[in-house]
Amino acid sequence: MDLLNRFKTTFIAALILVVLGAYILITERRTGGSGENKRLVLPSLAVRQIDSISLKFPEGAAELKKTDGGWVVLKGDKEKRRYPADSYSVKSMLDTLSGIEIENIAAVKAEDLEPFGLSAPRAEINFGGGGKEHTLRIGDDTPTGSGTYVMRVGSGDVFIVDSNSLYPLLFRTPDDLRDKNILSIDEAAVTAIKFTRKGSSFEIVNTEGVWSLKEPRPYVELDQPAVRGLLGTFARLNISRFVEDEPKRLHDYGLRSPGATVEIAHKGKKTAIVFGGEKEGQRYVKISGRKPVYSVLEYIYELIPKGVNDIRSKRLIKEDLDSLTQVSVEGPGTVAFKYEKKGLVWKKGGNTKTVEGVPDIESVFSSLHALRIKQFVDDEPVDLSAYGLEEPVAKLTMVFPNAVLTVLFGNAKDGMVYVMLPGASPVYAVLVKDAGDFIGTEIGGGK
């Protein structure tokens, strides 16, 4: 009896394996296998040999050609003009063409292509190179929507492929395939930038990697990271749209009387980006010496500084706060205190131990780090009393190993308080909330 049961068990297991093996065999024959054995729609395609691509859609067409300088987009009905192609888009198309996998076979040597949407396909891609020409047609989606019918012209077979895998091949206009990076200026080679916006104009120059005003002004220090950020944006300008390659009237785009210009000097020449009118969140632009009109997102226009103050350094305290050895505050409009660093420990000095309301050292350091210039008020003030700085309400003194820095606090207005550094002319404004540990809650001159 045990022998019979073991035989039945073995027979059932063997039967299951036979059925499972048959299912896998049938499935692989229909889908082209799995892993490395999967069948491709274009198995013999040699991507490196392809030197021309033509895409045809019901909505239009696009044509690309490979040249010694890279891929170009061809435009024009009679005379074909060449424009640099977007290398990523071209690579994406070629990778897609060479990797389309067959999920199923819908028909073998199909005589009627209409049921598959292949008699009038939604896309036809012709590509050639190495003496060979290939044509791929893309038809309708399958009833479930997850697959799409395709065929290789000349084979007659209709395949089902993953719809998502075809995305890079679907409707593309010539402009979709063009390189939108219209400027590629070597940032390291830029020697000067001139900004002009709404009648205001100034120029900055690069001296061994440090940016400064071409016409130096006392106390004006540029924000180096901010300048480098602007340079990166404009030297590698990416556009949103190709508006018109052969414009007849620049006036239509506000480019006859531009709203702003960014002129970049590099390698002995100057390249100007001219900004025109705004439309639907886009700003028309043109590059000096070129005909086309493009558009960029409005935020790029807004990056252009209205004046030098937009790119001035907003650091009020330029010394390294980690090297601070003493900090004190005094004045009629504040709670006086003093902290001294003894070894690695900060201790209260003078009468600070007996004074109520003194902020702890952690709060003081937090305020010092937050103390940044919010507004450049007056570079050459004539009357300090107008800002409450002739008789300041508070004086902050910081002692460093090689320097002593003092900040004077004056009147408050609109959530800001006027400050200045003795011995330097400019009057700045900082946020009251950032200066709270140094000026107290009541400030001379009122709110």
The assigned structural class equals alpha+beta
Q: How widely separated are the two ends?
A: 103 Å
Q: Regions with pLDDT < 50 over 5+ consecutive residues?
A: 18-35
Indicate the radius of gyration in whole angstroms: 35 Å
CATH class of the largest domain: Alpha Beta
Explain how this protein is built:
With 447 residues, the protein is α+β, with helices and mostly antiparallel strands. It has three domains: 39-177, 2-Layer Sandwich (Dna Ligase, domain 1), CATH 3.30.1490; 187-311, Dna Ligase, domain 1; 321-439, no CATH class. Helix content is 17%, strand content 35%. The chain has six helices and 25 strands. The chain has helices at 2-31, 87-99, 224-235, 298-302, 361-370, 436-439, and strands at residues 52-57, 60-67, 70-75, 81-84, 104-107, 123-129, 132-141, 147-152, 158-162, 190-197, 200-207, 210-213, 241-244, 260-266, 269-279, 282-287, 293-297, 326-330, 337-342, 345-348, 375-378, 394-400, 403-413, 416-420, 427-431. It has a nine-stranded antiparallel beta sheet, with no helix packed on it. An eight-stranded antiparallel beta sheet has the order 12-11-10-14-15-16-17-13. It has an eight-stranded antiparallel beta sheet with strand order 20-19-18-22-23-24-25-21, with no helix packed on it. It is elongated and about 100 Å long. The protein starts with a helix and ends in an 8-residue tail after the last helix.
